[in-house]
Design brief:
- It is a single chain.
- The chain is α/β, with parallel strands linked by helices.
- It has 4 domains: 88 residues, Alpha-Beta Plaits, CATH 3.30.70; 135 residues, Fumarate Reductase Iron-sulfur Protein, Chain B, domain 2 (Orthogonal Bundle), CATH 1.10.1060.10; 155 residues, FAD/NAD(P)-binding domain; 148 residues, FAD/NAD(P)-binding domain.
- 28% of the residues lie in helices and 17% in strands.
- The protein has a 5-stranded parallel sheet, sandwiched between helices. The chain has a 5-stranded parallel sheet with strand order 7-14-8-9-10. A 3-stranded antiparallel sheet has the order 11-12-13, with no helix packed on it.
- The chain starts with 31 loop residues before the first strand and ends with a strand.
Length: 562
């Protein structure tokens, strides 16, 4: 079923020219209208999650006579409309939704990420099942290449719309970098397995150990299915370009993580240097694993902490665990004895003019070379997909190019996730959803829904309405206890009471939350309380004088004067 909005008919009050019960008061030319706006949290969430809706569902539970359990269940299913991975994202997502949260202009953004996690944990504890949108079974089928977050997201959205889906995964288990790239202290394996199995329970077929492009071609998949979604993932480490990196004790970040997760014994020695040029999560994860394996770890990063793209919380945790980070330093070579590296040669850097990314370009400082002893080196600069068998989808030297709904230049083939550009888990999930909606609409012969809502900012809101509530911080395991257990989850959930308090910090940007301000400030009895509690307030335009008071006093920017 393609997402198509059905507009409800609203009651109209008054007809023709406006008449007023306000006697001789002068009539203004404008009249109030409820206009839902898009909250910036949803706009900046690559998965497109309905953040405002699931937060306010929990926050308003008591007001609307719901139990906590009822509110949490309803909020979980609101989340599941756009993503089947609340527990995963609640643990590993850097929460771009919080970066534009309007609450930042008060005490700080709502801790949305921890609410994501709580919804997923609640669903797992209560064995909530993902729901389908229709019981109808359509004849079309889709082949999904890759069982990572993007491929599974696409499979989920197609299966719940009644389409047959087969996922082809090259590894022996699904999950992609969620399984082979993220350590258990951040994402326990049982959490990942539960959310993947919830997707498979919708009837998604999974074929592991099948490498598309080698064991079967893309063209064969096109013959077997009505559409194909390519979500290979990026699991090849890129080279440093430094002489000596072919030594036996030099690993790429993704190769190191993959071998670790497959249970290989890695002889790292005591002193490990993790080389970071990109400063991303792969490097931080590698460093923290090495600490748990008993190694002393130093990270080299050529820019400053401010430019580091890794999740801030993870960088803080790594430093608390004893990882040393040398900022403004870059590798220039190795010291070797035979086929083994014994030290890293590096040079100090300073920041010069901005590069194409907008970040200041690191420039070597002449005469600042130094060495760090190393028993092993992990190069975690970046990664890329293996495009073997998918060359027809690549334009020039670029990666796979797609339109804004994930369609490639080949008819019947969509793509998303890291094959289009390295991104976050939430980016991959969003790509999968958009592609699934596009594929479903192409089968049904309809156009995908386009969200045209205006994004509401604080200049349209009354921040003085909201009670001051400090942002909550979740507890963590003491650093001294972490290193003895590789799978001990470091970041802990909010206690229930604290979590509910955090949802009350949501300002319901752009949608009525029953504050009654419009009704209280209207002198003309033109604002009507809803017959059904929780519905927006309506207007008797026959009484309205156009004084604008309702719009001016609306805290969340829901009322426009038109």
């Amino acid at each position: 079923m393609c997402a198509v909005k059905v507009k409800k008919k609203k009651k109209k009050f008054g007809a023709g020219r406006f008449s007023s019960s306000a006697g001789s008061r002068e009539l203004g030319p404008l009249r109030p209208k409820n206009v839902e706006k898009k909250p910036p949290c949803q706009d900046t969430c690559p998965s497109g999650n309905h953040v405002r809706e699931f937060l306010t569902t929990i926050a308003q539970a008591e007001k609307y006579g719901k139990t906590e359990e009822q509110a949490f269940e309803e909020a979980f299913y609101i989340y599941a409309e756009t993503s089947p991975f609340p527990m995963v994202c609640g643990r590993v997502c850097p929460a771009p939704c919080e970066s534009e949260c309007n609450r930042r202009e008060l005490e700080g953004a709502v801790n949305i990420n921890k609410v994501d996690r709580a919804l997923g944990d609640f669903a797992m504890e209560n064995r909530l099942k993902l729901k389908v949108l229709t019981d109808e079974k359509h004849p079309q089928t889709v082949g999904v290449v890759g069982g990572g977050p993007s491929g599974l997201s696409c499979a989920y959205q197609l299966a719940r719309r009644g389409f047959g889906v087969t996922v082809y995964e090259a590894a022996d288990k699904p999950g992609g970098m969620l399984r082979w790239g993220i350590p258990g202290y951040r994402l326990p394996e049982e959490i990942l397995d539960y959310e993947i199995n919830s997707i498979l329970d919708l009837g998604v077929e999974l074929k592991c150990g099948v490498k598309v492009g080698k064991d079967i071609s893309v063209y064969d998949l096109q013959k077997q299915h009505d559409a194909v979604y390519v979500a290979l993932g990026a699991q090849q480490g890129m080279k440093l370009g430094v002489e000596g990196e072919d030594a036996k004790n030099v690993f790429s970040g993704v190769n190191f993580l993959d071998r670790f997760h497959h249970g290989e014994e890695l002889a790292l020695g005591k002193d490990v240097v993790v080389i970071i040029v990109g400063g991303g999560d792969t490097a931080i994860d590698s460093a923290r694993i090495c600490r748990r394996l008993g190694a002393n770890v130093t990270i080299l990063y050529r820019r400053t902490r401010q430019e580091m793209p890794a999740i801030d919380e993870e960088v803080d945790e790594a430093m608390a665990e004893g990882v040393v980070i040398e900022f403004l330093a870059a590798p220039i070579g190795f010291v070797q004895e035979g086929d083994m590296v014994t030290a890293m040669k590096a040079i100090r850097m300073e920041l010069g003019e901005p590069d194409d990314s907008g970040r200041r370009r690191p420039v070597p400082i002449e005469g600042s070379e130094f060495e760090i002893p190393a028993s092993a080196v992990i190069s975690a600069i970046s990664q890329e997909p293996d495009f073997s068998g998918f060359e027809m989808l690549i334009e020039g030297r670029d990666w796979i190019k797609v339109d804004n709904r994930g369609a490639t230049n080949e008819a019947g083939i969509w793509a998303g996730g890291d094959v289009t550009n390295l991104g976050l888990v939430t980016d991959a999930i969003g790509h999968g959803r958009l592609a699934a909606e596009s594929i479903a609409c192409s089968f049904l012969g309809v156009e995908p829904e386009v969200d045209k809502r205006e994004i509401v900012r604080t200049d349209r809101m009354r921040l003085d309405h909201y009670e001051k509530i400090e942002r909550a911080t979740a507890p963590t395991i003491d650093p001294n206890q972490r290193l003895d257990d590789m799978d001990l989850e470091v970041n802990l959930p909010f206690p229930r009471e604290q979590l509910i308090q955090e949802t009350h910090r949501c300002m319901s940007c752009g949608y009525c939350f029953d504050c009654e301000k419009c009704w209280m400030f209207c002198q003309d009895q033109a604002v009507l309380k809803p017959a059904v509690k929780g519905d927006p307030y309506e207007f008797n335009l026959g009484n309205c004088t156009g004084c604008k008071k309702c719009a001016e006093e609306c805290p969340c920017g829901f009322i426009d004067m038109v």
